[in-house]
Amino acid sequence: MRHISPNLILATFILVPAAIAVTVTSTSNPAPRATPVEPLRATAQIIDLSGRTIGSAQLTEAPGGGVTIALAAHSLPEGKLAWHIHQVGQCETSQQFKTAGDHFNPLNKSHGFKHGQGHHAGDLPNLNVSEAGIARTTVTTPNITLLPGTTTSVMDADGSAIIIHSKADDYTSQPAGDAGTRIACAIIQPAS
Ligand SMILES: [Cu+2]
Hints:
By secondary structure, this protein is an alpha+beta fold. It is 12% helix and 29% strand.
């Protein structure tokens, strides 16, 4: 007959309930997990020079940085058109959208993807507008953020706007790519 140490028996009684207690504790109180964070979002309603809504853009902070802009608009002239993020969140039809200011350029670069000292944070690749006047695009620009308090944030004190122009951006001419007049405007606002 094997001799069982009284100490081992005692240890079993003490340690087993302790192990159960630990298990119960860890189940009811799981290790802290990263709280699922909703990506930052913004929205922008696009108006033309008569003040009529012709589309919208949805902006979403991209997981790897930057902002994805999904734009859909109609009643635009066919062809390639410039569009940019401009400095100020104002779309005044009576001012031909000029109060939206220049291109969003917090890093003081030159304009244009083809410029040696380019490009503005607000620069975007030209929009393709169909024969029916419809533009639909989704682009991710690494050059801006929706995170307030960041240098390249379009959600700054005076806001920002998306402007669509009457001509294509040549990606080199200063200060705005020889892109013609401003034909549509959208104030970027936090999505509710
Ligand atoms: Cu512009």
